[in-house]
Amino acid sequence: MGRIHEAVRLTADLIILTIRDGALNVLLVERENEPHRGRLALPGGFLRGDEPLERTAERELAEETGLDASAFRLRQVRVYSEPDRDPRRPRVITCGFLAIAPNLPSPVAGSDARSARWVPVVEAAGAALAFDHGRILADAVDLARDLLQFSTVATAFCGPEFTIGDLREVYETVWGVALDRPNFHRKVTDALGFVEPTGGKRPSPGGRPAALYRAGGATELSPPMMRPRVDA
Amino acid sequence: MGRIHEAVRLTADLIILTIRDGALNVLLVERENEPHRGRLALPGGFLRGDEPLERTAERELAEETGLDASAFRLRQVRVYSEPDRDPRRPRVITCGFLAIAPNLPSPVAGSDARSARWVPVVEAAGAALAFDHGRILADAVDLARDLLQFSTVATAFCGPEFTIGDLREVYETVWGVALDRPNFHRKVTDALGFVEPTGGKRPSPGGRPAALYRAGGATELSPPMMRPRVDA
DNA sequence: GTAATAGTGTCTCTAAGACAATATAGG
DNA sequence: CCTATATTGTCTTAGAGACACTATTAC
């Protein structure tokens, strides 16, 4: 085989999003090796042996967060193959994988990455992440915003039981808009398979207690949750 | 670097869709080399030197169709990295790129691929394509169907000038449904930036001549063109 | 005239959005 | 009682869909 078909190395980079303290957060690690040593970066790693790239992503997810990767649905964001995105040779090309996580108890129970921590997305977008991870993060957040519109993934940001108010806060946080409470409530409870009541209730601070729900069986959301028009 | 990070080779495979004789067609080539020699496959090729994968795709598009790749908008479908998808070693991992083309004059004016030809998608889905190209094609067609819904790419299936009827046939062909003519007409002409009239007309077979339009400036379509509900 | 296709008008119905009103808790 | 949050009700309006109707050509 000719040298013209340069061999490359592939990595899977993870964009693990969650909501903490009312803000969208992403899991970042501090790089311990060159290049970009000490910079914040998305967790990720090299494709190994005979695994598909999806398994690479699952493996890294488990290593970085200590969570069972099978509980998450990973989604490809896209491939990043600019020749200068990584100075190493042979070239390093990556694929972004989006994961949506509920609010996790400790900062991160992960083993491998002692330096892993949650960072608000607005803050991460301001910081200069390693490689082209800033761009990858932005693309993943865009994807997440679209997913909220047409699928039921919003429940993945919540725990096993949640209130309609919790779910509304997910939309408001990820989209950065305020939604009408009564209309949101009706829309969500009317959509088939989005949420189903558990029968339980949770007290609200100084108000009527909210009914608890769990995620329903549907993955597609129809009619979609319309994002309010942005009048530019 | 340890052997654990096996080097891989990357290819870009193209799913070039067009409409011919009222049917959705895809450009396929007959493989001239092993593996899968003689089988139908998507056009594509290896990443070369220091180019990004997008340029690989553009290059192959130009080589296979003779068309200027800059006239097309290529979209990543996704990465296919199953270890057994290609028997060659080192592993070959590919990324699908969707291209939407107007009805081209000759079968294919391409230079390199003498065996390139348009194949109806329904026929290609039945035939056993090389590698996992059947799956890639199916994913790309799904993506195209979604794009019609939320973007203005339908005009890319048409030439520089087209009638509303032409555009309606694009939707009907790709979605495989019949659409209401009056409602479609109003919807398209009312949407901002979707189409703009050229002032010209084109005679219809035994009917009132149709006004000609060209693609408008918008890329997003809002409100989206709703695909009729499928009652499974 | 008829046939065929292009385009307009109008009605119904679903669903989004605004917002009033009611329900249920803690103080 | 008041306050805060959850939930239901009601009205308005945008837009999808059905379909009658008009317009413009070829024959």
UniProtKB/TrEMBL annotation, chains A, B:
Keyword NADP attributed: no
Top-level lineage group: Bacteria
Annotated keywords: Hydrolase
Nudix hydrolase domain ranges (all copies): 8-141
UniProt-listed CDD domains: NUDIX_NadM_like (cd18873)
Cited SUPFAM superfamilies: Nudix (SSF55811), Winged helix' DNA-binding domain (SSF46785)
GO molecular function: hydrolase activity
Region (Disordered): 195-232
PANTHER family: ADP-RIBOSE PYROPHOSPHATASE, SLR1690 PROTEIN
Official protein name in the record: NUDIX hydrolase
